[in-house]
Amino acid sequence: MLHDSILTVGNSTIQMGAYNDRIYLMSLAAEDGPAIVDEIINMAVAEDLSKIFAKVPESQALHFLSCGFEKEAEVPDMFDGDDGVFLSFYRYLWRKEQSDKEELDRVLAVAESKKGKGNVSTLPSSLQMRRLGPEDAHALAHLYGQTFKTYPFPITDPDFIRQEMEDGVRFMGVYEDSKLVGAASAEVASDGNSAEMTDFAVNPDYRKMGIAGALLRALEKDCTESGIKCLFTIARACSYGINSLFSKGEYKFSGQLKNNTNISGRLESMNIWYKVVEE
Prior knowledge:
This is GCN5-related N-acetyltransferase. It holds the Pfam family Acetyltransf_1. The protein has about 280 residues and is α+β, with helices and mostly antiparallel strands. The chain folds into 2 domains: about 5-95, Aminopeptidase (3-Layer(aba) Sandwich), CATH 3.40.630; about 100-275, Gcn5-related N-acetyltransferase (GNAT) (Aminopeptidase, 3-Layer(aba) Sandwich), CATH 3.40.630. Helices cover about 25% and strands about 35% of the residues. The strands form 2 sheets. A 7-stranded mixed sheet has the order 7-8-9-10-11-13-12. A hairpin with a 5-residue loop joins strand 9 (about 180-190) and strand 10. The longest helix has 15 residues, at about 210-225. The mean pLDDT is about 95.
């Protein structure tokens, strides 16, 4: 199955398609609201997609909520002068039913129990970290292909990764000699106010070596030195490791997006964690 398409609606950006069985309003242009709400609902009906997921400024949320969207998470200071909210519209009840809710609650409880304990961020001497560039695209695509059976965006395509870099996504990687063994990225918002910490992958043979913690610290340093104030992640709710990583790194849990993302072979719920950097 092909990945979902990135489209422009007015001056806003959406991802739409059967792969994630959803519309994702990735970036809302202020001039497109509130009319865009009815437009994307009509698009979801026309394509028979079961969910709409929107990341918008809180000041733009009222019309979404009045049209049946539900607030599932909130992140302070995500936008310049405004908080961010994650809203979902479910066209079918099955899309919000979580058969693994008890396990997801256990994952979150374990993560919360580790809050603020800190992550190991010193790498073994055999490993080197650096900012990645277009010349690393093939190695990145290979690592992501090893790590994820499916992914909501085509990160196993080197051309997509190069385009992401060109669009300002910051990739960090850890090498052992010429072998890429870990990577992650920061997707910086167009207003420069926030960054999503994402695309974490570590070769299974190199886990428990502090690679994910080192990558997170390096991305945080890179972002905060650029003046970015709000850091957040959309993490797989079923993963003990990734949720504990952010909890230990002093991120706060904000909410859960039900059955939101096609990753590792199925639709999974995702947890929102955030950190606001004090000036």
